[in-house]
Amino acid sequence: MKNKPLAEIVIFLASLIVYILTICPDVYVGDSGEFISNAFTLGYNHTPGYPLHILISRIAILILPFLSVPLTVNLVSAAAASLSSVFVYKILKLINLDSIIGISLSLMWSFSFTLWSRATIAEIYTLNILFVSVVTYFVLKFYYKQSLTNLYFAAFWSGLGLSQHINGALFVLSAVLLVVLVNRKTLFRISVMKYVIMFFAIGVSIYVYLIIRSASNEALPFSGPEKWKRLSEYILPGVGITKQLFKTGGGMANFAERALWFLKSLFVKEFWIFGFLFIPGIWAIRKEWKLLLFFGSAAFINSFNTVRGPLQFQADFDAHFLVTYLMALILMGFGVRYFLEIASKKFSKFPRAIPSFLIFPIVVLLLNFNDNDKSKNDFGSILLENLVVNLEQNAALFTAEDEEFFLTRYLQQVEGKRSDLTIVTNSDLGKIIKASGRIPAVSNNQQMQMLLMRTAKSLIDKYIKIRPVYITMEHFPVENIWSEYNLIPQGIVSRVLPKDSEYDTGLKDVLVNPAWSNIHLDARVRGMAEYSYLSQFLYNSDIWNRLGIHENVVGEIERFRNFPIETQDENKRRMTFVFEGRANLYLKNYEKAVAALTEAIERKEDDWISRELRGTAFLMMSDTSNARNDWQLSLKYNPNNPGLNEKLSSLFNSDK
User: Fold this and answer.
1) How far is CA 163 from CA 1, 200, 283, 548, in A?
2) pLDDT digit string, tens, across residues 415-465
3) What is the mean pLDDT of the chain?
4) Residue 138 CB neighbour total at 10 angstroms
5) Domains of the chain by residue range
6) I need a labelling partner for 74 at 20 to 30 A (CA). Which of 23, 186, 283, 532 fits?
C-alpha cells in the first residue's frame, strides 16, 4: 500500500482536469499551426525540428480519432505539463518533504502562470520542461544514492530532451556539472562513460526520424548523399549552445527592462507571494554547496541567457524562463522543509497544521485561472478566416514568416482547404535569393529587407499576369510597389492590381469577436492583434486616402477604434486622428477635420503634418488667423516644406 503511486495519480489527474477545462479548443497563434500541421502530416518543424513532439502528437491523433486534431495536439501539451508535476512531486519526496506538502507544491507548479499558459496550446515548452524535471529527478537520485542506473537514465533523458529546446540543452550543462562534482572518478571510468554516451546517443537518435521521413517524402531536405551534413546544419542552429550563449538583445536599457519583468514574474506572477519561499531554500542548502551550485547554475544560465537574448516580449519570452521557475520551486521545497524542522522543534502540535498547506495551490489556481482560460479563445481560427475569406481561387499571398503562414499551412494540410493558395514568406524569398547564387553583401537589416522586397516584386511581376496577388501590409512596405501597382484593401489583406485596373471600392467585412475584450489574451495574441488588425486598418486608411476614397478612410478608423482589443501604441492612436482629419478635410467636413487634427496635435506638439492639415481646414472655414498660426508652427517643426511656404506667403499677401 505504501508504494502505490496514489499521490502521483492525484497530482496528474488534478492538473490534467484543470488544463482540460481551460484548454484552447482550436488552433492557436504563434507556432501552434506549424506543430499541429507537422504532427498530422509527419513533417518537420523549424529548427531544431522537435521530432519527438511530432511523433508523440501523431500517436495521440491516432488513438484519439474522435477529437479534433488541434484539440488532440493541445492535449499533448497538457499531459506533458501534468507529468512534469508528477516528477516535481517525486523530487520533493526525494528531499524528504511530507507528502501533503509535496502535493501542495507540485500543484502550485501545475497552476503556475507560465506552465499553465503553455499547457493549453500546441507548443513544445511543456514537453521540454518535462524532460528537465525527469533529468533533475535522476540527477538528484544519483547525488543522494550514486547509483549508476540513475546516471544512465539521466543520460538517456538528456539526449531525448535535446530534441526539444535550447533551454533543455543548456540545462544539461548544469546536470553534468553536478554529476562531475559528486563522483568524477566514477563518471570518467571507461566502463561507465561508454554507457553514458550510449544512452545519451540513444536519446539523441530520435533525430533519425528526419532521415527516415526524407526517404519517403522528397519535400523534406534530409535525403541524398549530403543528408547528414544537411541534418547537422538544421539541428545545430537550434541547439547551438555557443551561439545561444553569446546572442544579445539590445543594450543595457533593454536588459534592465527584461530583467525587471523577469523578477516581477518570479516573485509575484508565477506563484504569488509564495515565490519568496525559494530564498530560505537557498539558506537551507547553503552547506550542500554542490546542490546549490547545480540549482544556481541552471537558473542563472537559463534566466541570464533569456534576459540578454533578442527574443521579443510577445514571442514566448516568458516561456523561456520555465527552467528557472522549476529550480525556484524545488528550492521552495527546501525552504518549506527548513521551516518545518524549526517549527516542529518549537511547537509540538505544528505537524497538525500541515494540511493547511493545501491552500497554496488553491490560491495560485484562483489567481491565475482567468488569465489562462483559453476555453473560449478563438483568436487564431478567426484570424485564419479573415486571412483567406477574400482571397480568390489560385491566389498568391505574400505574408509573415510565422504567424499567418503557420495558420494558412494548417488550413491546407490539416483541414484540407484552400490548397489552391500559394503562400510566399520571407523564408521562401531567401531561398530564391540563395538559389540564384547572387547573394550581395548586406551590411544591415534594412538592406536585407530591400533585397527581399526586390525579390518579392519580381515574383509579383510574374504572378500578377496569371493569378490574383495579395499581401499583408505589415510585412510588405507600400512604397516599394505603389509606383507601379494599385493596392486595394480587402479586409486584413490587400489586393495588388495594375494601375489601370478596375477595382471594388467597397469595404470588405472583417470578422471579430466582441468577447475578446472580456477574456485574457496573452502577449502574443495582443502582438498579433496590433499588426494583423490594428496596423492593417491604419495601412488601409492610408491606401484609401491615396486612392481618393475618403469615406473608406473613416470606415477603417471606426474599425480601429471599435476593435475589441485596444492598442498599446500611443502613436497608432494619434495616427487615427491624422487620417480621420485628412479624410474629413477632403470630404469638406471641416469642423470634424479640425476636431480630429486637434486630438492628434494634443498627443504630439510637433506634429507638423497635422498642423498643416488643420491650418488648411481653418482656411476653408475662413479662419485665416488660426490657419496662419498652424502653418507657421508646421514650418517651425519642418522647415523643409517649400509648398507650405508658398501657401503661407500667399495667405500673407491676401491679408494685406
Assistant:
1) 37, 12, 35, 54
2) 999 999 999 887 788 778 777 766 666 556 667 777 777 888 888 888 988
3) 85
4) 24
5) 6-371
6) 532
Q: What are the phi and psi torsion angles at 497 (to 5°)?
A: -135, 150
Helix then strand then coil, % of the chain, to nearest 5: 70, 5, 25
**Quick check: 501 and 468 in contact, CB under 8 A?**
no
Question: What is the Cα gyration radius of the chain?
Answer: 29
C-alpha cell of residue 547: 486612392
CA separation for the pair 257, 261 (Å, rounded): 6
Residue 260 CB-half CA count within 13 A = 6
If residue 470 lies in a helix (H) or strand (E), which one and from where to where?
A: strand 469-471
Position of cell 492610408?
A: 542
Residue ranges of the alpha helices (H) in 531-638? 535-547, 550-562, 570-586, 590-603, 608-620, 624-637
Q: Is 423 helix (H, G, I), strand (E, B) or coil?
A: strand
State which amino acid sits at residue 459.
L
Q: What is the pLDDT of residues 338-358, one digit of tens each?
A: 888 887 777 766 666 677 788
pTM tops 0.85, yes or no: yes
pLDDT bracket for residue 67 (50, 70, 90): very high
Helix (H, G, I), strand (E, B) or coil at 493: strand
Q: Percent of the chain having pLDDT more than 90?
A: 45
Is 290 a residue whose pLDDT tops 80?
yes
Specify the long-range contacts of residues 602-611, CB closer than 8 Å, at least 24 apart: 603/570, 603/573, 603/574, 603/577, 604/574, 606/637, 607/574, 607/578, 607/637, 608/633, 608/634, 608/635, 608/636, 608/637, 608/638, 608/641, 609/578, 609/634, 610/577, 610/578, 610/581, 611/637
Q: How confident is the model at residue 653 (pLDDT cuts 50, 70, 90)?
A: low
- Per the rule left: phi > 0, alpha: psi between -120 and 50, beta: everything else, 176 is alpha
Report the 10 Å Cβ neighbour count for 248.
10
Distance (Å, rounded) from C-alpha 634 to C-alpha 614?
10
Is residue 541 exposed (0-12), middle (13-18) or buried (19+ Cβ within 10 Å)? buried
Separation CA 647–CA 652 (nearest Å)? 9
The whole-angstrom separation of Cα 505 and Cα 464 is 20
* Bridge partners of residue 496, in order along the sequence: 469, 487
Angle among Cα 45, 114, 206 to the nearest 5 degrees reads 30
- Beta bridge partners, 396, equal 422, 469
Question: Roughly how many angstroms between the first and final C-alpha of the chain, as a whole number?
Answer: 104
Phi (first) and psi of residue 487, to 5 degrees = -110, 125
Tell me: the pLDDT tens digits for 173-215? Answer: 898 899 888 888 777 788 888 998 899 889 888 888 877 777 6
Res 246: pLDDT: 45
pLDDT of residue 260: 84
